[in-house]
Amino acid sequence: MDVEEFRQRGKEMVDMVADYYSNIRERRVLPNIDPGYLSSLIPSDAPHEPEKWEDVVKDIERAIMPGMTHWLHPQFHAYYPAGYSFPSILADILCSGIPNVYFTWIASPAATELEQIVLDWLAKALNLPSDFLLKNEIGEVQQGGGVIQGSASEAALIAMLAARNEAVKKLQSNCPGLKDHEAVGLLIAYGSDQAHSSLDKAARIAGVKFRKLPTDEEFALRGEALEAAIKEDTQAGLHPFYFLATLGTTSSCAFDKLPELGPICVKFGLWMHIDAAYAGSAFICPEYRPLLNGVEFAESFNFNAHKWFLTSFDCSCMWCVDSIMV
């Protein structure tokens, strides 16, 4: 495909996507197929010769669309709608069309700085504490700041690994000669019994113990449950180091009681990470911002812009009070 054909095919693809959204009501919400349906519709081996673009496009409707669940269909009520907007789709084209690998500043200065600036904008829109900003009110760079992750699961893991690193250093400073694996073996993390299953996986990846704590009749974790667990595990010789608070649980949109939980984390030296993947977008509305009260006690905060913010997957925004630790 040369550049002139790319122009033509690109316009055709935009038309295809536009037609999809215009006619989505006519499609079945959930596919009426059995597992493994696709193997009978496409070859078992990759083609040895290139296929015509027209044939590839025909395969989309012939083979792919019959197996799609249409998240943006007006009758799709299983979850929140998939995040999208036409500007977001066009931005994806631009990002794919100007390919850079954004792993350091020099690799792409504009991309790095744009991410920092826009996440400061968003932090201000959410009325996050100023410690979460890269720049303070007078424009001075500080230790806070935001970064885009792929998912809230990644953000929870990254926060846990950062907290683990700080906890190991603390244990070793108090007990010279303690080996890394010995220190890690003493660590225990907490979350509610309503927290996302990725928290269990994060603990396994980090190699630390994890304890689910019981919630109240509204499926919210209360301060007394966390404090009791911390005291019990400390007496057992463990070192509590990390707590994940959920604002908007997957099953019921329950909110852990941050104003109770935050001071306990400060008192006992736990890193509190807030997982607001589901409900965090709502905090941009002043009438819902009080649900975030207690965030001032957190070391890190995360929500998924790709849920309610009309942004294509994946865009999970994470802020830290001390980004150097992360």
Characterization of this structure:
By secondary structure, this protein is α/β, with parallel strands linked by helices. The chain is built from 10 helices and 7 strands. The two termini are 42 Å apart. The relative contact order is 0.12.
Q: Please state the CA-atom Rg, rounded to the nearest Å.
A: 23 Å
Total count of strands: 7
Strand content: 5-15%
- How much helix, percentage-wise, in residues? 25-40%
Strand order of the largest sheet: 1-7-6-5-4-2-3
The number of distinct helices, counting runs of at least 4 residues, comes to: 10
Give me the oligomer status.
single chain
**Tell me about the biggest sheet?**
7 strands, mixed
- Bulk shape: globular
Unreliable parts: none
What is the distance, rounded to the nearest whole angstrom, between the alpha carbons of the first and last residues? 42 Å
N-to-C series of helices and strands = HHHHEHHEHEHEHEEHE
Average of per-residue pLDDT values:
92
Structural class: alpha/beta
Note the topology.
Elements: H1 3-22, H2 53-64, H3 86-97, H4 109-125, E1 145-149, H5 152-174, H6 180-184, E2 187-192, H7 198-206, E3 209-213, H8 223-235, E4 239-246, H9 258-268, E5 271-275, E6 300-304, H10 305-308, E7 316-320
Parallel strand pairs: 2-3, 2-4, 4-5, 5-6
Antiparallel strand pairs: 1-7, 6-7
